[in-house]
Structure formats: structure tokens, C-alpha cells
Amino acid sequence: MTPATSKIKKIKMKSYSSYKSRFRTMNDGNIRRWKEGKRHNAHLKSIKSKSRLRKPAVVPLAYAYAKVMKRLSFCG
Fold first, then answer.
1. How far is CA 64 from the centre of its chain?
2. Statement: residue 1 has pLDDT above 60
């Protein structure tokens, strides 16, 4: 007799490997990210906007990818 196996496909949630380099969790549980828009056409941007892009930003926990990170128990 063959054992009864489930017909439901088992799905593993893979952690997003791109998140490891783009985001970091801080000590208080917030998620830090770097701002985009700094790489190309820097000569067209003002000095003020370039210095603003240099500083990190905090991901609001209401965003979809913050919820995904929490679900995947992301720890960068």
C-alpha cells in the first residue's frame, strides 16, 4: 500500500535577498533605507537635493514591504 500524500503543493516563502543590501533594521525596530535618485544625472540636481538624498530615511511600518519584512522576520 502506498502512503496517502497530500495533493496540495507546499510553498516556501523565500526571503528577499535584495532586501539584505537595501534595508537595515535599527535598534528600535524601525527599518532604515537609503533614498533613491542619487546615482544618475547628478549634474542636473541641486546641491541641496543631493545632500538631502545622502541621508537615510525610515520606512513607515504601514508600507507593504515593511509588513512583508516583518512577516519574513527580516533582520539585516
1. 10
2. no
On average, the pLDDT of the chain sits at 78
Q: Which of 50, 59, 62 is nearest to 19 (CA)?
A: 59
CA separation (Å) from 2 to 5, 9, 66, 71, 76?
A: 9, 19, 44, 37, 44
- C-alpha 72/C-alpha 62 separation (Å) is 16
Q: Residue 54 region, left (φ>0) first, then alpha (ψ -120 to 50), else beta? A: alpha
Confirm if 47 and 55 have CB atoms less than 8 A apart. Answer: no
The pLDDT of residue 26 is 82
Question: Rounded to 5 degrees, what are φ and ψ at 9?
Answer: -75, 135
